[in-house]
Amino acid sequence: MPKNRVIPFGYRMKDGKIIADLAESKAVVKIFEEYLNGSSFLQIAKLMESEKIRYTADSEHWNKNMIKRIIENEKYLGNDKYPQIISEKFFSMANEKRILKATLVCVIPEDLQEIRNRIFCLECGHRLSRIGGNCRSAKWDCRNPDCYRLQYQLTD
Predict the structure, then answer these.
(1) What does the alpha-carbon distance between residue 83 and residue 79 come to, in Å, rounded to a whole number?
(2) What topology does CATH give the domain 11-103?
(3) What is the pLDDT of residue 34?
(4) Which tens digit of pLDDT belongs to each residue from 80-125?
(5) Where do the structural domains in the chain lie, given as residue ranges?
(6) Which among 36, 46, 30, 42 is positioned nearest to 100, based on CA atoms?
(7) DSSP letter at 146?
């Protein structure tokens, strides 16, 4: 199992001080650029793997949570311990976008909310859940793991 990083990605220790690692700091800038250009966390993680950028010395594996932590990490702005890698403007633009994307919620219309309160599984009696969001492919299904599940799923 890979070891967790003690020093954030983009930095390394030299002579008892934390300095920017040239290759990793370029990758940090690329992560912010890709995110601001519309790439998802997962797409960026795959890009980092395809470019053979190592997250730790013993692992090239990346995931979307690593990318998210990099984008959220204020240490890239610089402070007493860490040199600046990302400008404040770049950092705030990326995090405003992240927050906006995280708070976009599909609101279920009132008529569907009424249905949700009254529809139950014939097999087990648990309330059915609507899956698929607010789109034409939305279906109603029993989410009880002990249920046989419906042979077919109900549409709106």
Answers:
(1) 6
(2) Hect, E3 ligase catalytic domain fold (3.90.1750)
(3) 95
(4) 899 999 999 999 999 999 988 876 655 667 777 777 778 888 778 8
(5) 11-103, 110-155
(6) 36
(7) T
